[in-house]
Amino acid sequence: MFVLLDPTKRLVIAHRGNAMHAPEDTMESLRQGMALGADGLEFDVRLSADGVPVLLHDPTLDRTTDGTGPVAARTLAELRTLDAGYRFTRDGGRTYPYRGQGLHIPTLDEALAAFPGVPCILELKAPEATEPMIRAVEKHGARDQVLVGSFSDEAHAQLEGRGFHITASKPDITRLYLRSFTPLGAGTVTYQACSVPTSWKRLPIPVLRLARMLRTRGIPTHCWTVNDPRVARRLWDGGVNAILSDDPGTMLALLGRTPGASPPAEPR
């Protein structure tokens, strides 16, 4: 069984890599997450202006790079000139340890090539990235190592029936939320995992209710983004299968697994 779909496991997924300690969605962050011993990686996929799937969470470049404006307005060559570690700081802006260290925005092709066989959760941030994502995954023979999700109903619809492992869509989760307060159970499911936050727009999500309900159908529940060990422990004890965390080392230690990451870059 694909480990990300195993409802008996307790997993730690490096959310955007080791994102509390290195610039998110960069190869450095992903490598650190795997060096720590995470069970898998989660990263975001968007599309460049010339149709290349790249790893970046936001629709714009401003928060994480030294660039500005929409990701989709830049070609891959233009994106490659940007410093993907430029904005990262661990101390409120006193130091920027990865600035000028050569970190760039990775392509999906680069990430899949670097981590063959590693379980990955791909978060499609734009529907136009769906078909290029599929081509990249198939190029690397990685269909069985990825779980794909999206907040975009359009992207999700393009994935259904294509032989991919997929997470519950927004409408799916809305239905689960409503059914969790009734004895009706999960109802019809067309997905292989459910990935939810602990709250959404200040509305608490009954994660443990969902996990109990889905467990009867053999469907695992993943929860994001959890960086508090007390919250993680409560979720695991309540039946959640995977914790997506910016601090995977702390989560691994909570499970009694000794992290083994190499030291991060020194402050400049």
Structure description:
The protein is an alpha/beta fold. 28% of the residues lie in helices and 16% in strands. The strands form two sheets. Strands 1, 2, 3, 4, 5, 6, 7, 10 and 11 form a nine-stranded mixed sheet that branches. A hairpin with a 2-residue loop joins strand 8 and strand 9. It is globular. The relative contact order is 0.17.
Give the key terms.
268 residues; alpha/beta; 9 helices; 11 strands
Write a concise synopsis of the structure shown.
With 268 residues, the protein is an alpha/beta fold. Helices cover 28% and strands 16% of the residues.
Average pLDDT for all residues: 95
- Write down the Rg: 18 Å
By helix and strand content, what is the structural category? alpha/beta
Q: Which range does the strand content fall in?
A: 15-25%
Low-pLDDT sequence parts:
none
Bin the helical content.
Answer: 25-40%
Broad shape = globular
Spatial separation of the terminal alpha carbons: 45 Å
Report the sheet with the most strands, covering strand number, pairing sense and barrel closure: 9 strands, mixed
Q: What are the secondary-structure elements, in order, as H or E?
A: EHEEHHEHEHEHEEEHEHEH
How many helices? The count is: 9
Total count of strands = 11
